[in-house]
Model the fold of this input.
Amino acid sequence: MKTNRWRPMLAATLTIGLAACSSGGISASKDGVFAPGVDQRKEAVDGVDVGHRLLEAGEFELALRSFSRAALANGGVNAEILAGFGTANLGLGRLGEAERLLRRASLRDDAYAEIWNNLGVVLMEQGETFEAVQVFRKAFALNNGESAQIRDNLLLALAKTENPAYTDPKNNKYKLVRRGGSDYQISATS
Done:
């Protein structure tokens, strides 16, 4: 009597097991609804590039994680990763942390004009206009005057220096600049 009770369960287990062994498995669909698997043979996208894309999308917390992974993969931080950390912290409103990281990045040998520009934006956000003018000048010189965003930031900072009450509603935006062309905008404080 006991063998009759276990036969349906054994039959169901064998049926499910054999279905899983068929091509495609149990969940295979004829119309390809399920996502393909991960191709382990391909090289992963650079974490720094992913971090910059996340900054563009306004996903600052995820950008911090991506820059952290990039630092681990690259064996440490460089100026670009420090600048990415600083820019993400600026986006999160952590001005003190952003300033500290961007200053560290600007002191590196591999620092470039965009890092100095973004440091200037942080200083403007904190109301340190005079120092920001000097930082924007350095960025403008490193870039040979080729970046319109850096030039605009310098002109706006100079205008605020000459007239501290300067608030032109049309030009009240500072631009964060990313190496490689994309730019970010941060609203100015009044």
Summary: The mean pLDDT is 82. The longest helix spans residues 2-21. The chain is about 60% helix and 5% strand. The chain has one domain: 47-187.
